[in-house]
Amino acid sequence: MIERLPESHGPILGFRFIGEITDEDYMEDFLPALRRTIKNFGLIRLFIDISDLQSEDMGAMDDDVREDSRLLYVEREAIIGDRDWERRLTYVDHFFIFPNTDVRFFPFCRQDEAWNWVSEGVEQLPVMRAASH
C-alpha cells in the first residue's frame, strides 16, 4: 500500500510505503500523483518513508513502464528507512530512485531533518502551469 502523507504541499510530495507494494500500487497511486504535480509545478521533490515496507512485487512491470518513469522531474528525494534498505535501493533505481535526482537517505528518527532538507528553498522553484484550452 502507498499512502500519501498529509505534509505534502505544492511541489513536495510525501509517501509512506507500507507492507508489500504491487504494480497496481505503483501505477495507480504513486506515478499518477507524481505526474499531476509535475504538470503543475515542473520540478518536484519527494519524501519517501519505506520504514514499514516489507517487499515489492514489481514483476509485471515491463521495460516500457520503467523507461516512462525516467521522464519524471524529481529534483530532490529524501528516503526514510534503515541501512539495509539504503543498500538494497541502490540496485532498484526504477522503483524509488530517479535519474538526475539528489537523493539522501535518513534514518526513521531523523524524519524532521529529511522534511526540512526536501523542502529547503522550494519557494524558489519555477512554477509551470498547464495551458488552458
From TrEMBL:
Cited InterPro entries: SpoIIAA-like, SpoIIAA-like_sf, STAS_dom_sf
Q: Which Pfam families match?
A: SpoIIAA-like (PF11964)
Coiled-coil ranges per UniProt: none
SUPFAM superfamilies in the record, alphabetically? SpoIIaa-like
Domain of life of the organism encoding this protein: Archaea
Q: What is this protein called?
A: STAS/SEC14 domain-containing protein
The source organism is Methanogenium organophilum
